[in-house]
């Protein structure tokens, strides 16, 4: 089973259109669970059945089948294609009643799980209980909504019968769906709310796509490194990785297995697949190695064919070229061991292979490796085949030693078993823990205490600091643990600064609260005012980890911080706010001129990034003023907000 995207929400919010578009763009399957309930309703109406037992028998005699193609989804009852029939008024008027029957929901839940489990790369599922019941472990959960008037207008444009009171019908449906006893329409705890009232379909789709990219759910592209034995494939991979990972030995055939490494270049992450040397007429173990190379061609998104440019193309290279052409995938011809201009001139004979322009590189010395990586990144697909992301939100517990991180971890774990997980594709810090906490499963990233002047330390302390930095890099939200019973230290502030500069969501836990007396509480308030005023946006939770006191308050704080971290402000609202702000408080005069602010845009999320375009440079104090007012207007608790100024010359035309 691949990635699962769950989209819930009321009728008319745009679920079906957005879900089909996302599934088509990603090359995934699509499931409209509402169509399944409509199919059952159609069968019940066609056979004049009202009792659950009778309806179940009819469904047994006419099995419901869903074709999960986002470009042409179809519904069958037995051998009858009923895709159009289930959209009639009689089905619409009765589907909520039939859907409320527990027996019907139980049967369709089984069918939905079968469809989801059979999707190899990914599936987008939309309905009313997907994130809460059908796919509670979905990689991304979206609650797509819009106000009743907007939804009614959209539905009125879709139907031909203008006599129907669409608004009243939607209102009734909302009430039934939200109040039914079994699997009501509710937002999942960890779902992202998208209000499409003021968004068109394209904007709604882009918002979801942005979340998929940010959470690395689109899958990493796989680049297979192929070629004959001893042409330097593993050396080239080590050059790409910047470290010695692939085994290199001056003996042909050292690499026998397909091994995957995660690589990053130019802001793009992808998987490099090392393969054994391919031989046209293999014998012995070489048979398996060559077969592995052919499997790699099938698994990969991009094929990189490495040739020893000093030897040139051999007859068996021509045979491999034929296989590459049959694969019909982007293929890059790499001439390795080109150490200088003389070798490069001689290597141009590789054009004869018919794979286009050869890319020359010296894997051993690094010549041309940057240009080659640029070219690889340029041909990577938007969605890759390496679907190894699980969608769990990633949390790091960080702080200086002895503040109670381990105690807090144990308090979060509670009675539930912590699961050690070898995170697929992660070579930097392989051991994480999955914890069921506050109604959701979270991925807690292993960390170690951060010590003062860590760069000067050696041995264990140094590596502990390195692991903490790595955990911060990998996490989405950092829980900074402070010892509330002791004064806030310089090390504590350094940890907080690290989180802010890394652009991560943040929750500050004041641990050991059971040791805080009245005098310490007064002193702590003064320390917070003095030291934490720059991060007053951070969520703060008081906890006694050893006793578990108030541990239940941490999960809501984590969700609030993550919600803010991924929040996008509609452009129209942003510029309306900015216009009013500039009108009331214009930017200060600089060099005798007052810069004119044109407009602003949100450049990204995680964390929210805003760019303000103006005619001249704006003082840092005014930028902080904009950030402060942005927070007041749109609320971003728990996340840093980045505001940049971009000077733009006015177009004179």
UniProtKB/TrEMBL annotation:
Q: What positions does the domain EngA-type G occupy? A: 221-384, 393-566
The record's keywords, sorted A to Z, are: ATP-binding, GTP-binding, Kinase, Nucleotide-binding, Repeat, Ribosome biogenesis, Transferase
Question: InterPro entries from the entry?
Answer: Cytidylate_kin, Cytidylate_kinase_dom, G_ENGA, GTP-bd, GTPase_Der, KH_dom-like, KH_dom-like_a/b, P-loop_NTPase
Q: Which Pfam families match?
A: Cytidylate_kin, KH_dom-like, MMR_HSR1
Enzyme Commission number(s) = 2.7.4.25
**Catalyses which reaction?**
dCMP + ATP = dCDP + ADP; CMP + ATP = CDP + ADP
Select a single GO molecular function from the record's annotations and give it. dCMP kinase activity
Against SUPFAM superfamilies, the record matches this protein to: P-loop containing nucleoside triphosphate hydrolases (SSF52540)
GO terms under biological process: nucleobase-containing compound metabolic process; ribosome biogenesis
What protein family does this chain belong to?
Belongs to the TRAFAC class TrmE-Era-EngA-EngB-Septin-like GTPase superfamily. EngA (Der) GTPase family.
Q: What is this protein called?
A: GTPase Der
> From which lineage does this chain's organism come?
unclassified sequences, metagenomes, ecological metagenomes
């Amino acid at each position: 089973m691949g990635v699962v995207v769950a989209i819930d929400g009321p009728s008319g919010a745009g679920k079906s259109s957005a879900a089909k578009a996302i599934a088509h763009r990603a090359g995934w399957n699509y499931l409209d669970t509402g169509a399944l309930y409509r199919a059952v309703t159609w069968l019940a109406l066609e056979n004049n059945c009202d009792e659950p037992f009778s309806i179940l028998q009819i469904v047994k005699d006419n099995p419901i089948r869903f074709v999960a193609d986002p470009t042409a989804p179809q519904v069958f009852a037995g051998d009858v294609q009923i895709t159009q029939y289930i959209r009639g008024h009689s089905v619409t008027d009765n589907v909520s009643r039939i859907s409320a029957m527990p027996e019907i929901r139980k049967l369709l839940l089984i069918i939905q799980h079968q469809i989801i489990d059979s999707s190899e790369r990914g599936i987008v599922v939309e309905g009313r209980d997907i994130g809460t019941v059908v796919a509670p472990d979905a990689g991304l959960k979206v609650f797509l909504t819009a106000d009743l008037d907007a939804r009614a207008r959209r539905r009125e444009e879709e139907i031909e019968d203008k006599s129907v009171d669409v608004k009243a019908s939607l209102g009734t449906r909302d009430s039934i769906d939200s109040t039914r006893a079994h699997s009501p329409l509710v937002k999942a705890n960890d779902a992202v709310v998208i209000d499409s009232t003021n968004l068109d379909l394209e904007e709604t789709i882009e918002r979801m796509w942005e979340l998929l990219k940010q959470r690395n759910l689109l899958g990493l592209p796989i680049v297979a490194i192929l070629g004959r034995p001893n042409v330097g494939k593993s050396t080239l991979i080590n050059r790409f990785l910047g470290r010695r990972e692939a085994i290199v030995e001056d003996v042909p055939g050292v690499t026998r297995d397909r091994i995957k490494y995660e690589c990053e270049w130019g802001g793009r992450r992808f998987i490099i697949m090392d393969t054994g040397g391919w031989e046209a007429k293999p014998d012995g173990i070489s048979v398996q190695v060559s077969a592995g190379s052919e499997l790699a061609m099938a698994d990969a998104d991009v094929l990189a064919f490495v040739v020893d440019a000093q030897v040139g193309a051999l007859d068996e290279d021509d045979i491999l070229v034929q296989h590459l052409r049959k694969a019909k995938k982007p293929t890059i011809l790499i001439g390795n061991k080109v150490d200088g201009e003389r070798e490069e001139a001689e290597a141009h004979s590789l054009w004869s292979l018919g794979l286009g322009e050869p890319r020359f590189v010296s894997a051993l010395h690094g010549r041309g490796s940057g240009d080659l990586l640029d070219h690889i990144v340029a041909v990577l697909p938007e969605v890759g085949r390496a679907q190894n992301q699980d969608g769990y939100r990633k949390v790091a517990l960080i702080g200086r030693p002895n503040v109670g991180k381990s105690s807090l971890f144990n308090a979060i774990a509670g009675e539930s078993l912590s699961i050690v997980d070898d995170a697929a594709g992660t070579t930097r810090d392989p051991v994480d823990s999955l914890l069921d906490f506050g109604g959701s499963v979270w991925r807690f990233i292993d960390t170690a205490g951060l010590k003062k002047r860590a760069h000067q330390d050696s041995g264990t302390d140094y590596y502990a600091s390195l692991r903490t930095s790595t955990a911060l890099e990998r996490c989405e939200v950092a829980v900074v643990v402070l010892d509330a019973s002791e004064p806030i230290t310089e090390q504590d502030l350094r940890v907080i600064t690290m989180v802010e500069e890394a652009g991560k969501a943040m929750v500050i836990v004041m641990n050991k609260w059971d040791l805080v007396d009245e005098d310490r509480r007064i002193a702590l308030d003064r320390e917070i005012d003095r030291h934490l005023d720059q991060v007053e946006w951070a969520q703060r939770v008081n906890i006694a980890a050893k006793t578990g006191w108030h541990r239940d308050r941490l999960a809501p704080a984590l969700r609030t911080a993550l919600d803010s971290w991924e929040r996008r402000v509609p452009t129209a609202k942003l510029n309306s706010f900015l216009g009013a702000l500039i009108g009331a408080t214009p930017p200060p005069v600089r060099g005798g001129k007052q810069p004119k602010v044109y407009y602003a845009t949100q450049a990204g999320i995680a964390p929210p990034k805003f760019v303000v375009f103006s005619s001249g440079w704006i003082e840092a104090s005014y930028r902080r003023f904009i950030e402060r007012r942005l927070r007041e207007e749109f609320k971003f608790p728990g996340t840093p907000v980045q505001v940049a100024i971009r000077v733009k010359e006015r177009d004179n035309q």
